[in-house]
Design brief:
Number of strands: 0
Membrane topology: Multi-pass membrane protein
Organism: Streptomyces lutosisoli
Structural class: mainly alpha
Oligomer: single chain
Order of helices and strands: HHHHHHHHHHHHH
Distance between the termini: 56 Å
InterPro entries: AA_ABC_transptr_permease_3TM, ArtM/GltK/GlnP/TcyL/YhdX-like, MetI-like, MetI-like_sf
Keywords: Amino-acid transport, Cell membrane, Membrane, Transmembrane, Transmembrane helix, Transport
Largest sheet: none
Strand content: under 5%
Protein name: Amino acid ABC transporter permease
């Protein structure tokens, strides 16, 4: 091909990579807006309002939904989190132990309690334990049972989180502590664990959110009117009123806690990322 022919041929025209990305984003926005408009146009807002937005039922729920149901939900969650935190740390240290039986027991515990649904663990605590040990009662009544059930669930996940955090601490930290005369146990408690705890704060907060939602399984244990949590409180009123507004209000109360916790998790993750740079 001669130089003249090359000059006559038209130059290929096409979209640049940036233009393609902009076009793709624009198409996604169009689809999103179309879906929202379709939902807004086709939904029967009158029926939704009658079923989920009865103001009289909302007023009936206050202040008990906050002073009773939300309070119990927070108490159940925090008690289970504390039990899970302590037990999870013990299981994590057993998993990292040089003693074989400790590692085996910790590994079996983690695999079993991570694999079982939380519902079965609540049934185990509420039914199997009293049958296995007649005449014995868990201290604290329902609150104690929930703390143990949620703690058993959370400990399996927290143990792996603790183990990952401990292993993420540079080995030089332990070597430096031992060179200063620290025993292995003292170095672990005083040097390694505090650094690991800082690393695992975001996933621990995520586990707290999970336990907060799992506390709704307390109904398996059978609760009194004064021991109801958000889900039970909302379901009881929904069944008596034949309306779903109480369930929606209970869900919004969950969001009052989980949304701020989610914000805390993001902030902790951002700070952890900055500290590792």
């Amino acid at each position: 091909m001669s130089d003249a022919d090359a000059q006559v041929q038209p130059r290929k025209t096409g979209l640049t990579r940036r233009q393609k990305r902009a076009l793709s984003r624009g198409a996604q926005y169009v689809v999103f807006v179309a879906v929202v408009i379709a939902f807004a146009v086709t939904a029967d807002w009158g029926r939704l309002k009658n079923q989920f937005a009865q103001w009289d039922l909302v007023k009936q729920m206050f202040p008990d939904v906050i002073t009773l149901a939300l309070k119990n939900t927070v108490l159940y969650t925090m008690s289970g989190f504390v039990v899970g935190l302590v037990l999870g740390m013990v299981i994590a240290l057993m998993r990292l132990s040089s003693v074989g039986p400790y590692r085996w027991v910790a590994g079996i515990y983690i695999e079993i309690f991570r694999g079982l649904p939380a519902l079965l663990i609540f049934v185990f605590v509420g039914v199997a334990v009293p049958l296995a040990f007649p005449g014995t009662e868990i201290p604290g009544g329902t609150y104690g049972k929930v703390a143990i059930a949620l703690g058993l669930v959370g400990a399996a996940y927290m143990a792996e989180t603790f183990r990952a955090g401990i292993q993420a601490v540079p080995k030089g930290q332990m070597e430096a502590a031992r060179s200063l005369g620290f025993s292995s146990a003292r170095a672990m408690v005083s040097i390694i664990v505090p650094q690991a705890f800082r690393i695992i704060l975001p996933p621990l907060t995520n586990e707290l959110v999970t336990l907060f939602k799992d506390s709704s399984l307390v109904l398996i244990l059978g609760v009194t009117l004064e021991e109801r949590e958000l889900s039970k409180f909302g379901r009881d009123l929904a069944s008596t009123s034949a309306n779903s507004t109480p369930i929606l209000v209970a869900g919004l109360c969950y969001l009052l806690v989980t949304v701020p916790l989610g914000f805390v998790v993001r902030r902790l993750e951002a700070k952890t990322g900055e500290s590792t740079k």
